[in-house]
Amino acid sequence: MGKVLAIVGATGAVGTTMIDIIDARETVPWSEIRLIASARSAGKVLRVRGQDITVRELAPEAFDGVDVALFDVPDEVSAVWAPIAADRGAVAVDNSGAFRMDADVPLVVPEVNAAEVGNRPRGIIANPNCTTLSMMAAMGALHRAFDLRELVVASYQAASGAGQVGIDQLYNELSVVAGKEMGVKAGDVAAALTEAGVPVGSGSPFPAPLALNVVPWAGSLKDDGWSSEELKVRNEARKILGIPSLKVSATCVRVPVITTHALAVHATFASEVSVDKARAVLAEQPTIVVADDPAAGVFPTPLQTVGTDPTVVGRIRQALDFPNTLELFICGDNLRKGAALNTYEIAEVVAAG
After folding, report:
1. Structural contact between residues 92 and 120, judged by C-beta atoms closer than 8 angstroms
2. N or C: which end of the chain has fewer CB within 10 A?
3. Are 22 and 344 in contact (CB under 8 A)?
4. Confidence of residue 266 (pLDDT cuts 50, 70, 90)
5. Rounded to an integer, what distance in angstroms lies between the CA atom of residue 190 and that of residue 194?
6. What is the pLDDT of residues 79-121, one digit of tens each?
7. 272-315 pLDDT, tens per residue?
8. According to the model, what pLDDT value does residue 164 have?
9. Vertex 211 angle, CA 265 and 313, to 5°
10. 130 is catalytic
């Protein structure tokens, strides 16, 4: 008999992407799929695998009989409701940041540490931050082959990483910029947005205009000038890869792209590594596409990656002045692999266990 899957936050951007992923699967291990959301969305009808399913209101009894519950809700909601789901007998797979660094909650990327799904004393499994996750399939494979020691990362993060409000903000900014008859001079973007009634600064999800710009900031301010996103890359990479002493430094940058995060990665290994060996290792991974022929104009970009499941890796180079070090450019759709797909893949691993 099949198992019961619940999707909490089913009507949101990631929740609906999860439904798209489930619809695209040839087979699923679920005899029943429950859709759960806030009271505001309860009663809506969504179609999943050819069936109309009415969204239930989030309540303890909604988890009765559920085997796996996928959560895509804010941290504060997950912090309350994931333990309730676990107490009702479900394995809670949480896409928020509420449990990622909890020692009793595994942080899982199935290509890297699938065995950790069985180590869940709280009945909860965490899904990593989408920025960290975008590089984990590649870095996990390279670590297994060459023993990773250091990571220096610059991220180029899409507006959708800030949620629907980030997407709306960028579209509104672009509409203002594109609507100017003679265009907007670089220094006049903020003034043009203000004139058009589009928020800038405190009223925006971004601390500076994103249209025609890049903003070297994502997340909230932490000690010594680091952002929360940058610290997530460091702490989560260590936990997922199982390397507590891994040296990591990250700079997170928001760019005017709707969906798909990109990362420039400088990775140092304990073992001798070459571009050819690394390319061969990556090419063997079923969830990685190697796009690495700059002479032919082939390299990863967000536009070619958006809407797809694989991690795309290219610009693979031996660092000129650093031994046993590779430079790579990596793209991953932050709403799919960076959130919905990885969360769902964890559920598949749980169901198969």
Report:
1. no
2. N
3. yes
4. very high
5. 6
6. 999 999 999 999 999 999 999 999 999 999 999 999 999 999 9
7. 999 999 999 999 999 999 999 999 999 999 999 999 999 999 99
8. 87
9. 25
10. yes
Cβ atoms 153, 265 nearer than 8 A: yes
CA 197 from chain center: how many Å? 31
Q: For the purposes of burial, counting CB atoms within 10 Å of the CB of 321, is it exposed (0-12), middle (13-18) or buried (19 or more)?
A: exposed
User: In whole angstroms, what is the distance from residue 107 CA to residue 113 CA?
Assistant: 9
Q: How much is the pTM?
A: 0.94
Q: Among 347, 307, 349, which Cα is nearest to 95's?
A: 347
- The one-letter code for the residue type at 233 is V
123 phi and psi, to 5 degrees?
Answer: 75, 20
What pLDDT shows up at residue 179? 76
Torsion sign over Cα 110, 116, 118, 119: negative
- Alpha-carbon gap, residue 306 to 343, rounded angstroms: 18
| 3-state secondary structure at position 252 | strand
* CA pair distance 327, 318, nearest whole angstrom: 6
155, β-bridge pairs: 252, 263
Euclidean distance between CA atoms 181 and 179, whole angstroms: 6
- Whether the predicted pLDDT of 1 surpasses 70: no
Rounded Cα gap, residues 141 and 281, in angstroms = 7
Q: Which two tokens stand for residue 245?
A: 């002493």
- The pLDDT value given to residue 183: 63
Active-site option among 143, 252, 261, 331: 261
* 123 token code pair: 């009945």
Strands (E), the chain: 3-8, 30-37, 45-48, 51-54, 56-57, 68-71, 91-94, 124-126, 148-157, 247-254, 261-269, 288-290, 311-318, 325-332
